[in-house]
Amino acid sequence: SKQEARTEFSALIDWTIKNAHTVDAILFYKVDRAIRNTADLARLEDLEANHGVLVEFIQQPFSHTPAGWMQIRNLANMATYQTQQQSIDVKEGLERRVREGFFSQVVPYGYQNYRQNNRGLVRVHPENGSKIKRIFELYAYHGERIDSLVKRLYQEGVYYSSAKPKFGRSKIATILSDQSYIGKIWFREQWWDGTHEPLVDYATWQRVQGLLNRGHYQSHELLFAGELIECGHCGHVITGESIKKPLKSGGIRRHTYYRCSKYNTIEGHPKTRLKESDIDRQVLGFFKQMRIDDESLKKWFVSVIKAKTESDQKLAVDEIAKLNRLQTEIRGKQDRLLNLRMDDEISKADFERKSSELREQEANLSIRLAGLQQDRHENADLAVKSFELSQNLIERWDTADYDAKRQILEILCLNLTLNGVSVDIEWRKPFDVIAKGLNFSASGEDRI
């Protein structure tokens, strides 16, 4: 009955018409169980008038006369009215609940429903709430991506449920893009403000959305494919193909090649195919160029990095003070706006619009402040760790799996380009300085 088409009801009528010569009557418990609209009523009247099959209602018997059918029509009209009115009441109730800040449906993973004073409320799930926080933390600040995050959670013992330990990839993607975790409710194709406790702060949420928009799903383990490298000839992405060749001994040898995705469709395009081992060898060559063997030179490099980052921290102090002043001004505007609304000097629509603008401005300032504060405390340590990473890349690469190698390349490289049979790298800072080599004549105690 919840389906508009009422497929079971239609199947009953069609079967009865087909077998009318063997059927005396069809039985319904009550009129409102059979008839939901005038079309249903018309079909039942036709069944009796034109096919000779009686229609009987066990709880509401009637005479099979014009007067009896008039009685059924009245009951059917009442049933139709009640069905339609109930639908309106339910929709209004759901909208009223959402406007009050409550979910209108099953709460998302990480929350749970409970009843208090005969009212359905929402709270953070005692176990799953912390799992949501961990998922956002790993994705936002620990370099994990969806595929590696699935593995990391399982390794840490963060299970989806006792019956299903591993989080699914699609479930992770849904969680990371669900605004419910910053206090919102999805209803009628838009997000509403909720009263439930947010599990994720706005700065982390924004960072995750930025990373999601830049991310690309890898459905395979072709290390240098998946939009990692672009073609130097035409600018299209390099794609990979894995070819299996049977051996006389009965085994299979796998060869992986990389080429431009458009080299068969662009006239005059070089027909270059490069083995994965050839690209791998070039990448290891780049790593060797970054290694510094002189221990005293390494210590000097680290000391200069620390001096530079400490200088940058002093410059950040003034910017933080400026942002704090702007944040105080916005909060003052919010207080004044609330007073105007309480005095009924502005409309509800204007209040909500302006209040939303101010919340957005404050959230953006919070993101910038959080970034500056984090930079002040972490930049020096991050720079030193980056240098240490550059010095043992070869060892890491040799023992890394697919996910770890992709992460290393994303940390080190802004762009990778295939020119003929050569791979060119555009390094991220500060790896560009290390890769180019140190210019001692231009270096000093506080600069490189």
Q: What's the topology here?
A:
Layout: H1 7-18, E1 25-28, H2 31-34, H3 38-51, E2 54-57, H4 66-99, E3 111-116, E4 119-124, H5 128-141, H6 146-156, H7 169-176, E5 184-187, E6 190-193, H8 202-214, E7 229-231, E8 238-246, E9 252-260, E10 274-275, H9 276-290, H10 295-342, H11 348-391, H12 393-399, H13 402-412, E11 413-419, E12 422-427, H14 431-436
Parallel strand pairs: 1-2, 7-11
Antiparallel strand pairs: 3-4, 5-6, 8-9, 9-10, 11-12
Helix pairs in contact: 5-8, 8-11, 10-11
Written account of the structure:
The protein is of the alpha+beta class. 54% of the residues lie in helices and 14% in strands. The strands form five sheets. The chain has a three-stranded mixed sheet. The chain has a three-stranded antiparallel sheet with strand order 8-9-10. Strands 1-2 form a two-stranded parallel ribbon. Helix 8 crosses helix 11. The longest helix has 48 residues, at 295-342. Residues 216-220 and 440-448 have low confidence and may be disordered.
Helix content class = 40-55%
Order of helices and strands: HEHHEHEEHHHEEHEEEEHHHHHEEH
Question: What global shape is seen?
Answer: flat
Number of beta strands: 12
Query: Which structural class do the helices and strands define?
Result: alpha+beta
Q: What's the rounded overall pLDDT mean?
A: 81
Determine the number of helices (DSSP H or I, runs of at least 4 residues). Answer: 14
Strand content: 5-15%
Largest sheet: 3 strands, mixed
Q: Record the strand order, biggest sheet.
A: 7-11-12
What is the gyration radius calculated from CA atoms?
A: 34 Å
List low-confidence stretches: 216-220, 440-448
N-C termini distance: 76 Å
